[in-house]
Specification:
The complex is a heterodimer of chains A (245) and B (848). Chain A is α/β, with parallel strands linked by helices and 245 residues long. Chain A has a single domain, classed as 3-Layer(aba) Sandwich (Rossmann fold). Chain A is 37% helix and 24% strand. In chain A, strands 6-7-8-3-9-10 form a six-stranded mixed beta sheet, sandwiched between helices. In chain A, strands 2-1-4-5 form a four-stranded antiparallel beta sheet, covered by helices on one side. In chain A, a hairpin with a 6-residue loop joins β1 and β2. In chain A, α3 runs parallel beside α5, α4 packs antiparallel against α5 and α5 runs parallel beside α6. Chain A starts with 6 loop residues before the first strand and ends with a helix. The relative contact order of chain A is 0.18. Chain B has 848 residues and is an alpha+beta fold. Chain B has four domains: 208 residues, no CATH class; 119 residues, no CATH class; 213 residues, no CATH class; 165 residues, no CATH class. In chain B, α9 runs antiparallel to α10 and α22 runs antiparallel to α23. Chain B starts with a helix and ends with a helix. Chains A and B meet through α2 and α3 of A and α14, α21 and α24 of B. The complex binds adenosine-5'-triphosphate and magnesium ion. The site of magnesium ion (MG) has 2 residues of chain A, from α1. Chain A: Keywords: ATP-binding, Nucleotide-binding, Transport. Chain A: This is ABC transporter ATP-binding protein. Chain A: Belongs to the ABC transporter superfamily. Chain A: One of its GO terms (molecular function) is ATP hydrolysis activity.
Chain lengths: 245, 848
Amino acid sequence: MTMTPAARAVEVWKVYGTGEAQVQALRGVSAEFERGKYTAIMGPSGSGKSTLMHCLAGLDTVNAGTVYIGETQVTGLGDAGLTKLRREKVGFIFQQFNLLPTLTAAENITLPLAIAGRQPDKAWYDTVILTVGLGDRLHHRPSELSGGQQQRVACARALVSRPEVIFADEPTGNLDSRSGTDVLNFLRDSVRQHGQTIVMVTHDPNAASYADRVVFLADGEIVDEILSPTADSVLDRMKKLDRNA
Amino acid sequence: MIKASLRGLLQRKLRLALAVIAIVLSVGFLSGSMVLSDTLNARFAGLFATINENVAVQVQPTKESDNGERVLLSAAELEKMSKVDGVDKASGEVSGQGVVPFQSDTGDEVTTQTTIAAGTDGRDPLGLVELREGDWPHSADEVAISANTAKLAKVKRGEQLKIFVPQLGEPKNYRVSGIVGYSGGRDSLAGEALILFELGHAQEMFYGKRDVFANASFSAKDGVTHEELKKRIEAQLPAGFKALTGEEVTEQQSNVLGDQFSVFQIILTAFAIIAAFVGIFLIYNTFNIIVAQRSRELALLRAMGAGWGQVVGSVMLEALIVGGVGATLGLALGAGVGALVERMLTSGIGLGIESAGIVLSPWAVLWSYAMGILVTVIAAFVPAIKASSVPPVAAMREVVRPDKSLVGLTITGSCFLVPGLALVALPLLASVPQSTLILAAGLGLVFIGVMLLSPMLAKPVVRLLGYLVGWGQAGKLGVRNSLRNPRRTAVTAISLMIGVTLISAAATVTESFKTSLENDIGRYDVAIIVLGPNTAPPDGRTGYNPTAMDKVSQLPGVTDVASWHITLNGALGGQPYPGLAATDVAVAQRMWKMETIEGRLGKLSPNEFVIDDNLAKDRGWKVGEKVKVRIEAVERDYTLVGIYKATPTVSGPLLAEAAVDDFAGGLAYQGFVSVSQGTDVAATVASVDKIMSDYPGVTVGDMSAFLKQFNQIFDFLLRAITFLLGVALIIALLGILNTLLLSIVERTRELGLVRAIGLSRGAVVRMVGVESILIAVFGCLLGLVVGVGSGAALSQALIEADFMTTIVLPWTNLIAYVVTAILFGVFAAVVPALRAAFLNVLDAIAYE
Ligand SMILES: Nc1ncnc2c1ncn2[C@@H]1O[C@H](COP(=O)(O)OP(=O)(O)OP(=O)(O)O)[C@@H](O)[C@H]1O
Ligand SMILES: [Mg+2]
């Protein structure tokens, strides 16, 4: 039995606007994201990275093509179906503003479970909390945490419901290198130790080197990919892409 | 800078619309009620201008009834003044009040706003009234009536018309000698009835002697101005009279009629002020939130080099524009609604006066703009100052503004609340002078105190309420949201609290009063009550002839009858005392189970009287005290022979029956009948009613019928208050809606986030709904506590004054208010919740 990939895009087209102002953000993108793997998506600004991620996650609709999360076909789901998908199968980490200011860090982490009306699996919750490494700051409000700490809380929140796949759009984009490294380690550990699937958009070759595989996007098309990347190999490939563009 | 702020104005259409709506509603009610009363007044002024069309000068008594005595003009004095150079024609006026015609077919009284009864000698020199058919009245058995009266009473010329004249005590039949009308073919001036008696007959009836007049009107010869003629006539004025020009008379008369509506206007204005007060909170809150939300934008401007003054100035400019637009629209709305209501009112009561058009007084305009612009500018000022003083960098970062300390507010609030409570308690615990004033001041302080304390109260109360309504994660988030800015929650809730406070206070007092009356009235030996008409203040000329009670006492089963003569035109110990009663105190004592405290009750001799204990304490009188009692123009020394215990039903001075001779007329205003056990009360009521049918406006009923009538009056009052406060409540509703909508705009990204991690649309709706309900219920509870407390304090004060006996909480009403508040919350949440639920998740997350 072959395992279905955690997320899959088949011939996905995404077009913004009409007529003169039309932008083809995605032009027939097909990609698979294997379970238990850490994939980075790279590409020049405006190449469609965020768009692809939003379409994969069901945050945005596609014009043509099909998207699957696990066995579930995302394209064509209504709001109720999408809500269920977000509760059970997908986790998110945004570049910023990931936390509700009224809740403590701990409450933010368990929020997806509370929303879904599920009890946290005690052992898994403890594991996640331990990995976040916030210690006694766990009961502080987001406004009392540093940017890196906040982003780690956001990662923990995405992890706690054990989704099929976590999407992260430039999660380290707003952080200094030290805090960024913390977050990247956190994400990689969750893939290595707990078999989590993660898809991450980034501009940073160093961040991409934490992934198992890097997919390159340019002008709405997948143009290249590297397995087991290093910062240098990624940088190298990017320079090549720039020259072609 | 100005360009930036104008552009900003247009880009925030939603918030702008909300602010404008807030201002329009608040200004609208205020200006509407002002336009209504101005337009009504103008209509009356128009009416009297017509009446006084031909009057150049009118001579009137200086005071209507100085110490009760009526000053009259003699025929000789009138004659002398009519000889004054420049006088064209002169007319003496004879008129009486309380005259009522009966309908020819049913025998019921004619119902109109007023009946004008006058005397005529067959000429109307000033030409207001013209004879249409038949003749003027020439004997004491004839009357001429207006075409409208003929229509109302369903009589024709030559037929008999039954008329009640208070001075005669019994209705009398007159032959209709002629039908008159007004110039311009009008049947009436304003839907009133007009009866003209023969002059001498009228003088005898109304004044007790011939050849006297109440006042006189003069027209001027060509070329003589009204002012000039007034000066000339003034030289010939008899003592106790003054001269007015026709224009002055018009003004005076419309003021008098205006006064009849003034209660209505005062009430309307009071509610307009309440609505305006609530509106202030609404405008303040809306603008406050809008500017607070823009603090990042303002900080950006600051970072780009805009000065402190420029930032504040641009916000002020924005407030000025929004306030100006809102005030203008509100004024227009108010003018429209006010004029519409005026039309409905005047046609509703059959006031057939021509409209004078919509009157927009400078005051209405001034107040509208003051309210609209000032409040908006002040509301914007505070947050603008705050926004401009935040360091640019701090404001531009994504920060949650930490909760501002509520300590200052709490201390200030306590400084109001504690003395307020003390002032409320003082008159209830000890007897002090000016107790009503102290109580009112105390209640005012308590109200302000609670308002100031409400942000502090918001947290614990809302948290507690949250346990009740905050089900599920969506509910919990809603509870958190309503707690995150206690000031905002409190200010929003206060707008609802104001209305609820007043309504629940009124409900508590009326409920207590109703129950007290019900409990009290059952104790007495009175089965049937006869009540005089409420069309004119009692003075002996309205009510029934006491001889009718003799007939009642003959009815089977009747054991006791009593007639009470009541006058409002009297004085007790040198102070005017409206409500002197003369009756057989022996019977009163039996019927009302009056309890003697000092001296004796029972049959009084002439010039003796008794009073209740409160009044005795108030005036410091002991039994044996000689007190000057004035009735109408006559002042006599009375001896206080007894003091009785006041009850909610019986209190005040009771004079010996002989005092009736001094009253303006011999009619009794109230009557009471007791019956023996087993008597058919309903049948007896019917018989008494039959005996009383000759007396206009007199109603007969058994105790329970009167109790019911009383209750209906109270219920009606409460409904009227609730209805008028409805406007304030709707403004409050809008306030909740505004706060929620603005909060949702503020929390757009949060909404995107929670949707992205799996909160369903339904849950978002619930989350917003819970927040809305919490705000509404919080406001309602604050209002209930303060309102019921105030109502209870007022009731207690009334109990001390023996007007009431118990305090009863109107539970059904209170529950209804809470339920209404919840519905309000739900209602206010609809638009914001849908907006929140249908936000595009991606856009929301990317929202700046
Ligand atoms: N809502 C939208 N309306 C119109 N065009 C859009 C919209 N969102 C994205 N685009 C366009 O689609 C293209 C892809 O955008 P996308 O945000 O996916 O780029 P990206 O690769 O994430 O860029 P960056 O690295 O700068 O985040 C761009 O040309 C962008 O201008
Ligand atoms: Mg992007």
